[in-house]
Write a structure and sequence with these properties.
The complex is a heterodimer of chains A (112) and B (111). Helix content of chain A is 0%, strand content 50%. With 112 residues, chain A is mostly beta strands. In chain A, strands 2, 4, 5, 6, 9, 10 and 11 form a seven-stranded mixed beta sheet that branches. Chain A has a four-stranded antiparallel beta sheet with strand order 1-3-8-7, with no helix packed on it. Helix content of chain B is 0%, strand content 45%. In chain B, the strands form two sheets. Chain B has a five-stranded mixed beta sheet with strand order 1-9-8-3-4, with no helix packed on it. A four-stranded antiparallel beta sheet of chain B has the order 2-7-6-5, with no helix packed on it. In chain B, a hairpin with a 6-residue loop joins strand 3 and strand 4. Classes of the chains: A mainly beta (112), B mainly beta (111). Chains A and B meet through strand 4, strand 5, strand 9 and strand 10 of A and strand 4 of B.
Amino acid sequence: DAGITQSPRYKITETGRQVTLMCHQTWSHSYMFWYRQDLGHGLRLIYYSAAADITDKGEVPDGYVVSRSKTENFPLTLESATRSQTSVYFCASIRDRGDEQFFGPGTRLTVL
Amino acid sequence: DAKTTQPPSMDCAEGRAANLPCNHSTISGNEYVYWYRQIHSQGPQYIIHGLKNNETNEMASLIITEDRKSSTLILPHATLRDTAVYYCIVSLGGSQGNLIFGKGTKLSVKP
């Protein structure tokens, strides 16, 4: 189906482990974003990407790594997970010159 | 920090119009006002956006004051499915404008 998907939808991991959250979109949108949402807060931007092989830091990038080797995929890696990274993670995309960001369903990550 | 101020919560009766206010007194001339909503546990959903003029689409209307320091999102006939957190966001727009989400307004539509 066309759209933006995230996997896994739920993940439990332990402190210090590496975790990769996947984001895939079928529209060939140029721009993709990763946000995190913590209880009682709005979404905060972690990283974004303007095109394949172009990425930039957002508001809260520390502890995260991204890559964008293909336009349709934008994985987010926690190299050494910490409890403070327990959150819901949303991926989004927007077409070039578009106005509307399309959000994925989210990944709920718990770090024990 | 978010550049907007919204009430934390509002109630609305089903079938009535829901009017959600937003203050953005520091908005600059090339920034748009965007509205998104987030239904429980789902990803945010775009509703509408505008620069200066009032806008209307199939979901809602956006009224922006002449000085652009505030705006109101209007859901003309609220349904129970409109219960959500509504975010008012000021942004340069499109791919140039990273969205900065505040805490939004929790709208509860009651039967």
